[in-house]
Amino acid sequence: MVEMNTAPIITREERRQQFIESGWWVSIPLATIPAHWLYQGENRLDGGYYTAEANAAFRAVNDCGFEVQVLEKVTAPIWYPGRFKRIYAKSPTDGTPFLTASEMLQFRPTSTEYLANNTSAVDICKVQNGWILVTRSGTVGRCVIVGKRLGKFAITDDAIRVQAKGVPVGYLYAYLSSWIGQVLISKDQYGSAIKHLEPHHLANVPVPLPPEEIQAEIHAEIMRAYALRDEANELLDEADRLLHEKLGLPVFDESLVPYLPAPSAPCLPTNRPEMPHPKAFSIRASELADRFDASFHVPIARTAVKLLRDGLYEPVQLGSIADDIIVAPRFKRIYVPKEYGVPFLQGSHLPQMRPYDLKYLSRTKQTNLERWIIHKGWVLVTCSGTIGRVGLVSSYMDKWAASQHLLRIVPDYHQGHPGYIAAFLMTPYGQHQLTAKIYGGVVDELTEEDTRAVWIPNAPLEIQREIGERVVQAFEKKDEASAIEEAAIRKVENLLQKREAA
Question: Has the keyword Ribonucleoprotein been applied to this entry (predicted)?
Answer without folding.
Answer: no
